[in-house]
Every structure is written in structure tokens, then in C-alpha cells.
Amino acid sequence: MNARIRFALAVVVLGLLMTGPFLLTALLIWLESEGAERDLLLRVLAPHLPLGTLMTALGFAVGVAVVRSLFRQYVKGLLRMAEHLQLMLGANRDFRVKESGPPEVQSLARAANVLAEQRDALLGDVSDQIARAKQSVEEEKNRLAALMSELTQSVVVCNLDGRILLYNNEARVQFRAFSEAPSVAGGGELMGLGRSIYAAFDRNLLGHALETIQDKLRRGTERPVANFVTTGRTGQLLRVRLSPVLAAHPAGAGDTRAEAEGAAGPDVGTAELSITGFILMLDNITRNFENESRRDQMLHTLTEGNRASLANVRAAAEMLDFPDLEDDLRKRFRAVIRDEVTAMSERLDRTANDFADSLKARWPLEEMLGADLIAAVRRRVESVLKVPTKLEDVDESLWIKVDSYSLVQALAYLVSRLSDEFEVREVRFRLTGAGRLVHLDLIWSGQAMSTETVMSWERDAMNFAGESSPLTVRDVIDRHDGEMWLEREKVRHRAFFRLLLPAANPGEHVDSTLFLKGESRPEYYDFDLFSWSDKAHELDDRLLTELTYTVFDTETTGLHPSQGDEIIQIGATRIVNGKLLRSESFEQLVDPRRPLNPDSIPIHGIQPEMLIGQPTIDKVLPAFHAFARDTVLIAHNAAFDMRFLQMKEAATGLAFDNPVLDTLLLSEVLHPNQESHRLEAIAERLNLTIVGRHTALGDAICTAEVFIKMLHLLAEKGVRTLREAREAAEKSYYSRIRY
User: Fold this and answer.
1) Identified catalytic residue from 300, 480, 625, 694
2) Which segment, 66-70, 358-362, 596-600, is predicted with the most confidence on average?
């Protein structure tokens, strides 16, 4: 029985106690009197009956007011204090009970706050000890995260169910190209913790690879691996190296659950080791395969194509050796030799050009300091060409993204032409920044040259100092998406070639020690997911802490989806194993194809011009649907956001039939006596800092942090599974609101 029902019963009992004696006395007197006595009694009491009734009603009203005041000050105040104590003990250690209400309640609040201070002091000591004990473990984990992030090879680690529990950034980028990711919201983040690897790879293919490894384990292979090549939806070729994650296991006690699910095939147990997961190392070999095919084709052309021509030339040359050969035949054989040699020459030229294109396709662009590149050029020019060099205004902090070998070769070639044709005896180098580009200048003094000369130098093959290359300076410049031109300094009687080169992203060059300090790295891995292989519960009966969530929010043109308002932005993030994965997010503006409500612009800050050229909702929803696949949806006031999604089901053919939880309803479940359940108020109660509110992604992240804090409080109330959370939320008042 809740407090309100008890209050109502107290009011009824109070009224009966106040009016009962008077009514009972009047009834007894009435029953004991007869005839004239009753008439006399009526005549005496009649004038005083209205006053008595008024006094009775007044007394009843006063009693109700007194009881209501006591209820509000004591009962309601103590209930609110109980919720505050739950917050203070659970989600928000810094929270303190407000000292309000009657003196007795204030005294209790002060005592609770004093106990909280003592509790915090003790917890602080314990936390310091735990932090010191965990420091070395965290350092190892962060080192692993830093190592994984910097690997140039794609690495993915999965459990036996194929759920991803570790990956690096290279794998994320590669999966977008391999799996034909949607073109909106950065590809929808197909790679993510807890997602299934079978979205990109055929289950039978990986199952066969695992069977191969199991056979090798049974034969006693020390480090069993499986290698295979597969293709994605876009035609990309991946070379995959699969290695098992092994754990000590009693003989004969293999993990047969994976066999039942078809993930790992036959029994994975061995005499001492069993497979608990697998590591995929991926290489995109599409370009390598194409280049190898082209080289094979060129070799075939050079051999088979020229074989017949050589046979014709040999036969014609042998016929020319006959001294009595007629002149007409001699001319004919000479023509055969000339034609065949010409064809062979053309064939060789075509092959050389094709080889040059193939060579250019293989150029790797690496990041390096611009000063290091200039130092390499100076060494090459001075040692090979014997031309002195000097530096002039070189910014040593600039990073560039180049193929250093071909660029050094191109600059040395230009210096060789200057030295041979214009007798330049000294060159200077200048390096300056220009936003996202870098200016590299090759400077000399002396005779001017024409633009036609510069263009011919760009087109000629780079042959100098006994070296030859099928490439041209223009090939090198184009490969870097750069440009080159000639400029003159008439005052100083100088000229220079200016090369525009791409600057490397300065944000990527940070102190390596930072990799061991940040908290964003650990979001890339979660070893607790290994235990997912042992969970086979139905979704409704799964613990809330075990589920994967997509927390999302929408910004809209207005508040009335049924009246034509549209979504203008969707933002979402993911929660896996109770951890917020900020790195796995979805954020996309949407062209609503209708004007914005001017009153909504100050709230979400999205201007109409920001939506011009953005994809429409029929392009964005499929990407978001893929992002949220196999997860529980969470939103604050989810009925509003879900209504907008449901209004588009017929047009897109997509149904968002995921389970849904609402932090607004869960807040009322946890704190029914609080006055506000706005997201800001909940975050303040839970001691959360709000950043980026009223952007879709900002609200989604705030909602995710609120939900993570709520998990512990819900468990204290006995709400531990998805079914229990949904049933509790359905009983709240806000669940009856419709949009």
C-alpha cells in the first residue's frame, strides 16, 4: 500500500473520529425518547443544527488540512529523502540531502549528510588503494590499445560466436570499403564491438578455416593458422590470416556449444588446449592482384606477341643471304623486316607505358618531415650531380605525405637539366606551409627559361646521371595530387620551381606518451565479450548489463510528426557491456524537403542552409537501421523519436522492431517523487556533465551516460532484465503519452 492510499484512509478515519461521537449521541437520544419528548428535542435542536453542522464541517476541513500538511512535510519529505539517499549511496557520491522541511526532518538530513561525509572519506581511501593496484594493469591495456591503433595491418579479434571484441582503426576503414558501407554518416560504422563478423564474412568460410586449425591442433602443430582469400560485395579482394585464441582446457572437455551453433564446426577440444576465439589479420590485395595480372599480361605480350615477329625477321634475314635473290623479293623481305621491327617497337613502347602506370599505382605515400626530404635531395644532388646546395627559409616543423624516392628523383632530375642546359652552378631549397599544402621551392640564379621548356621537362622521361626511369616529373606531381610551375624574382634575378605537395594531418603527430594516458583507446576492446559464448538466454530474459544498446536522438522541424514535421538530424552511439563507445557513433544531417519551424532553430541550432545538399530520409534511415541492427534502442522520451521513425516505415520498407527503453520512464520508475524528469534534471541528479545538448549526437551521448548510471539503481529496485525494465516502465504515467 503506497503513501497516497494510506493518506486517504487516514482522512476517512479522522472524519469518522470527529463526527462519530456526535452522531452516535444524537442517535441514542433519538431512540430513547418518545412522542412529545422527540418533538421537544427537535424544537430545541433545530435552531442549533446549522451551526453544529458548520462546526463539524469546519473541524473536518481543519483536520484534513492538518493531516495533509503533516503528510507533505513528513511523509512526502521522507520519501524524497529516501530517493536522495539512494542517489547518494549509488549513482552520485557527491550528492547531499537537502536540509528542508520541519526541524525533525532537517535533523535527520544533517545526520545523513554527516554519515555520507564519513562514508566518502573511507571510500576515497579504498579507491586510492584500488587505483594503485590497477595502475599497472591499465598501463598494459593502454599500451596494447596504442599498439593496436598504430598497426598498419587490419586486426580483428572475435569470440567463437563471431562477436567482435577487439579491432583497430585500419580494420574499421577497410571494412567500409570491403562491405559496401552506406554513403551517409561515415559508413554507419559496420565495424564495432559486439557486432557480428559474419556481416562481412561468410559463416561457412570461417567455419572451414576453424576446422583446419582444429585438425592442425590435433596433429600437434605448435602455431596453427589458416590462410584464405575472399571477396566482398564491392569486389575487393582480402587476404585473411586466421589464428586461434587458445586457452588451457582439460582433455576431452572441448567447447561443443560452438559446434551446435555452427560457428566452429566439430569439437574444438584437444588434449590440453581449446579455442576460445580467433584473430583475423587482413590485407586488401585488390590492387596487388590487378597489378600482378597486368604484369603477367605484359610479359605474355612481350613473349608471345614478339615471338612471331622475331620468327618472321629471322626468316627474312636468312632469305636475304642468298646472292641470287631477285630484287623484288629482296625488297619484299626488307619490308617484312621493317614492318615487324616497327610492330615490335610499338609493342615495346605500349608495354613500357603500361609498366609505368603499374609502377605509379604501387607508389606508397608516407608521412615524413619536410626537412628530412630536403636533406635527402641535397645529398643526392651533391653526391651524384656535384652541384652545391643551400637552404633558405625551411620550416622544420612541417610534415608532408609523399613518396620520397620518386620525389627525390624528380627534383634531382630538374637540377640536372638546369646544370646541363643553363649552366646553373648552385641551387637553394625553400619549404613553407600553406594551410593543407606545403610549398617546396627549387631556386637558382641565372638565365631565364620559357614556359615551353618547363613543359617539355615535365613530359620527358627522367633520365640523368646514368639513371633511367619511365616516369616523368608530371607523373610524380600528379601522383601526389600536387602542382608545379615556374616563377621569377626579377629584383633578385632569380627563378624557382614551386612544387605544391600535400601536408600530413598535424593532428596525427602527437606525443607517443599520450597513447598511454587517454581514455579513448580502451573503447576499442573489451575482453569481457569472450564470455558471450556461454550466454544463450532469450533477449527479454537477458540481464540489462549483458545487452548491446543503440542510444539515439533526433532533431526535427517541429513537434508534430503526424502533421508533416520531419527529421533533420539523427545521432546515435553504442553501449556494449555497460561501456559507452564514443568512437562508434552515427551522426547525419537530413534534408527534410520542407521549411524549418523558426521557433525550433534556437533549440537545435541547425540553420536551413546547413541542410542543403544533405541526403534525404530515405537514404539515411537504411544506414541507421543497419547501425542499430541486433541492439536495444534507447532514447529519452522515446515515444516521440519512435513516432518519427514509424511514420517512415511505409516509405522505406524498414521496420524498427527493436526492443525500446526510455530513460524518461525509467527515471520515473527510479524516482517517482521528483518534480522533473527532464534530461538535464536527471543528469544533474546523477552528477553528469552535459556537453553538446540539443544536437542529436550530444543528446544521445548524454542519454547513454544517464542510462549507464541507472543500471545500478535499477538493480537495487529488483529491475535486472530487459523484461523487468519494460514492465516497470509500462506502469509509469508518462508511458500513456502519445504523439
Assistant:
1) 694
2) 596-600
Residue in 91, 1, 108, 2 with CA at minimum distance from that of residue 673: 2
Q: Do residues 414 and 381 make contact, with C-beta atoms less than 8 angstroms apart?
A: no
Query: Are 573 and 580 contacting, i.e. CB atoms less than 8 angstroms apart?
Result: yes
Burial state string for 301-332 with b = 16 or more CB within 10 A and e = fewer than 16: eeeebbeebeebbeebeebeeeeeeeeeeeee
**Sheet containing strand 164-167, strands side by side:** 164-167, 154-159, 273-284, 237-248, 226-231
The 10s digit of each residue's pLDDT in 442-451 is 999 987 788 8
Q: 92-100 — which CB contacts under 8 Å span 24+ positions?
A: 92/685, 92/686, 92/687, 92/709, 93/120, 93/123, 93/687, 94/687, 95/685, 95/687
Distance CA 144, CA 168 (A): 11
Identify the CATH assignment for 366-504 out of 3.40.50.150, 3.40.430.10, 3.30.565.10, 3.50.50.60.
3.30.565.10
Task: Tell me which H or E stretch contains 583.
Answer: strand 579-589
Grid cell listed for 336 = 617484312
Mark out the alpha helices in 563-616 (DSSP H runs). Answer: 601-604
Assigned architecture for domain 537-736: 2-Layer Sandwich (3.30)
Residue 615 is given by DSSP the state P
Single-letter amino acid code for the residue at 51: L
| Average pLDDT across the chain, whole number | 77
Element (H, E) at 364: none
Tell the residue number behind the cell numbers 576492446, with chain if given: 525
C-alpha cell recorded at residue 181: 558501407
What Å distances lie between residue 455 and 459, 471, 485, CA to CA? 6, 15, 9
The DSSP call for residue 516 is G
d(CA 146, CA 168): 9
Alpha helices per DSSP H over 469-538: 473-479
- Sheet architecture: strand order including 548-556: 579-589, 567-576, 548-556, 632-635, 660-662
* Domain boundary assignment for the chain: 1-137, 151-284, 289-361, 366-504, 537-736
Which pLDDT tens digit goes with each residue over 27-43?
656 555 666 666 665 66
Q: Are strands 494-502 and 483-489 parallel, antiparallel or unpaired?
A: antiparallel
Q: Which helix (H) or strand (E) holds 117?
A: helix 103-150
* One fold for 151-284 and 366-504: no
pLDDT at 264 over 60: no
Question: At 151, is the secondary structure helix, strand, or coil?
Answer: coil
Distance CA 297, CA 573 (A): 48
Q: Is 694 a catalytic residue?
A: yes
C-alpha span between 704 and 689 (Å, rounded)? 12
Write out pLDDT tens, residues 340-365: 888 877 777 666 666 555 555 455 67
Closest CA to 242 of 149, 158, 144: 158
- Amino acid in the structure at residue 222: E
Cα 126 to chain centroid distance, Å, stands at: 34
In 233-363, alpha helices (H): 257-261, 286-300, 306-320, 327-361
Is the separation of the CB atoms in 67 and 18 below 8 Å?
no
3-state secondary structure of 550: strand
Residue 566 pLDDT grade (very low, low, confident, very high; cuts 50, 70, 90): very high
Helix (H, G, I), strand (E, B) or coil at 373: helix
- Cβ atoms of 421 and 454 closer than 8 Å: no
* Check whether domain 151-284 has CATH 3.30.450.20, yes or no: yes
> Residues 138, 158: contact at Cβ < 8 Å?
no
